[in-house]
């Protein structure tokens, strides 16, 4: 005998799209005479409509984002090449300036040595210094010539190997500051000569250019110069 549970199972199967086991006439006849199964069928159909179809919703495939890696790398490489080219051009200019400054210091040293002529002359007949001799001034000029010649050699080596310039910066800065300090009175009183002012400017420009060349010659920028100043012998080797 067909009961309520059988009819309700049949109705559930049909709502789910499954093939029925009972004939349509039997199911329709039972629904016409059974209010309980009709109510079950209405609730089941309403719930089915609320939940929607069991078929999986088709999801539109998302558009694949274009791979911009190649374009970004190309742009970065272009910027890097441009920056590297500018950096190399500026470094080459600094090296030329260092060579020119070294030549000027060398010429200045030779002129200083030439200025000592006559300051240590002797009286050939008496075998003593001439009355107008100034041996102390000659000695000071000789020391100044030695410092200027050492500066020239330092600049030549710095232009040849800019990476060693950090070790020379202390010497160049010290020369610039001491020369400026000793000439401060003459500058304030307007007593400084042309050669003295030109020498101060030469030291100042050389120090600045050497610092810029030092900065440009290191891949790590400013950190490279400071690192070598605090490095030990093993790190420099």
Can you describe this structure?
The chain has 237 residues and is mostly helical. Strand 1 and strand 2 form a beta hairpin. Helix 2 packs across helix 3, helix 4 packs antiparallel against helix 5 (135-160) and helix 4 runs antiparallel to helix 7 (194-216). The model is unreliable at 54-61 and 219-226 (pLDDT under 50). It has helices at residues 4-15, 24-33, 35-51, 69-114, 135-160, 165-188, 194-216, 222-229, 233-236; strands at 122-123, 128-129. The chain starts with a helix and ends with a helix. The radius of gyration is 48 Å and the shape is rod-shaped. The chain folds into two domains: 4-50, no CATH class; 91-236. It contains nine helices and two strands; from the N terminus they run H-H-H-H-E-E-H-H-H-H-H. The chain has a two-stranded antiparallel ribbon with strand order 1-2.
